[in-house]
TrEMBL record:
Signal peptide: none annotated. Residues 68-195 form the Nudix hydrolase domain. The lineage of its organism: Bacteria, Bacillati, Bacillota, Bacilli, Bacillales. This is ADP-ribose pyrophosphatase YjhB (NUDIX family). It comes from Paenibacillus favisporus. It holds the Pfam family Nudix_N.
Amino acid sequence: MNKPLKWLEWAKQIQAVAQTGLAYSRDVYDLERFEQLRALSVEIMREYTNVETELLTALFAGEDGYATPKVDVRGVIFQENQILLVREKAEGEWSLPGGWADIGLSPSEIAVKEVREESGFVVKPTRLLAVLDNLKHNPPGPYHVYKIFIACEITGGEATEGVETSGVQFFAEDDLPALSQIRNTDEQIRLMFELMRHPEKAPVWD
């Protein structure tokens, strides 16, 4: 379990308070104070990272409405006791196919869509494996994320690189490549193998 960076957690909490306040407050003075809080959250992030203020404002503090965690959905596919991973073009490391949930699609539909786009395989969802809070299971990041892992079975297609991927391959548990830790950690991949070996186990959560 990862120990959170205090400054990062404070920055995210300040941002969430500011975002929610801006969404629901009607008092002009309160709105001004919430804008100041949002600016403070960006300043904290800027102080401890190398990201420019404009980009932080757009990505970290650019959302509206009630502040809620983001949702990341990952498709988990096994063949002959090996797990399907895709190589991310962004950093050259490997991850389970998946990404941010889209409005209008269910978690299982997202898993099917992401697997097809990133690996070329057509799949059907078969089982919910885990719902993990990235505050407890991933390196520190700017967003609070719930990660949903869904087991899928290949029904068609073939291994094909996608717009965001430069490799598609199955790996054994004792021969895993360098993983994109912000997307899925070694611990999470090994948990998927454990759940594959024990399908009677209930989904893991929290």
